[in-house]
Specification:
The protein has one helix and five strands, in the order E-E-H-E-E-E. With about 70 residues, it is mainly beta.
């Protein structure tokens, strides 16, 4: 299945929840913010929110500082 992940085209397995997508990409920041098609996904919904074909997913790391 194809998605846009952080601005890049990516191929991922079908049937992934947001939590499984975080694991798939090896995101280690426990405070990562996830947007799906421009909408914020609450962490409590990571297990039930499913990724669909052509979704635009953004991972935002709030701990990046300057």
């Amino acid at each position: 299945m194809n998605i846009e992940f952080n601005g890049l085209e990516e191929t991922i397995p079908q049937g992934l929840s947001i939590r499984k997508l975080i694991e798939f990409f090896g995101e280690g920041d426990p405070h990562v913010i996830v947007e799906q098609n421009g909408r914020y996904i609450y962490p409590k919904n990571y297990d039930t929110c499913m990724v669909a074909e052509n979704d635009r997913i953004e991972f935002i790391n709030p701990n990046l500082g300057g």
